[in-house]
Amino acid sequence: YDLENQVYLSAVSACEIAVKNALGKLPLPDTPDVFVQEQRELHQIESLPLDESSTLYLPNLPPIHRDPFARMLVCQAIKHDLIILTPDPMIKQYPVKTIW
Q1: What percent of the chain stands above pLDDT 90?
Q2: Rounded-to-integer distance, Cα 98 and Cα 84, Å
Q3: Rounded Cα–Cα distance for residues 18 and 13 (Å)
Q4: What band does 2 get if pLDDT is binned at 50, 70 and 90?
Q5: Closest to 8 (Cα-Cα) out of 51, 61, 60
Q6: Is the pTM here over 0.70, yes or no?
Q7: Model confidence over 43-85: pLDDT tens digits?
Q8: How far apart are CA 100 and CA 39, in angstroms?
Q9: Are 13 and 69 in contact (CB under 8 A)?
Q10: Which strand (E) or helix (H) includes residue 40?
Q11: Is residue 59 packed enough to be buried (19+ CB in 10 Å), middle (13-18) or exposed (0-12)?
Q12: How many CB atoms sit inside 10 A of residue 22's CB?
């Protein structure tokens, strides 16, 4: 990636990683707390906390996507003018910038 860009991992994505790992749907080589932190540090990815303004934007989204994690990522991207790295065609239907 371009070193001029800031890259973030949303707390929403970290939560989804932990949930899917606990359900056995996402095997990891270590516990989610250790794995996520190691990977963020290795790839120089900043943590993006979930803030109140992003959560309160949720009612403004049209009901395109049913996944609550995806919807919160869209809210964060809109509120913070961020680009989402995703192949999800449903996310691309929201007024948000995407790459992939």
Answers
A1: 95
A2: 5
A3: 9
A4: low
A5: 51
A6: yes
A7: 999 999 999 999 999 999 999 999 999 999 999 999 999 999 9
A8: 20
A9: yes
A10: helix 32-42
A11: exposed
A12: 10
Q: How many CA atoms lie within 13 A of 10 on its CB side?
A: 21
Model pLDDT, residue 3: 67
pLDDT of residue 47: 97
Name the residue type at position 21.
N
- Long-range contacts of range 19-23, CB-CB < 8 Å, 24 or more positions apart? none
Helix 11-22 crosses helix 32-42 at what angle (to 10 degrees)?
A: 140
Q: Which residue has the tokens 């990522």?
A: 73
Tokens matching residue 33: 């707390």
Number of other CB atoms surrounding residue 10 within 10 Å? 21
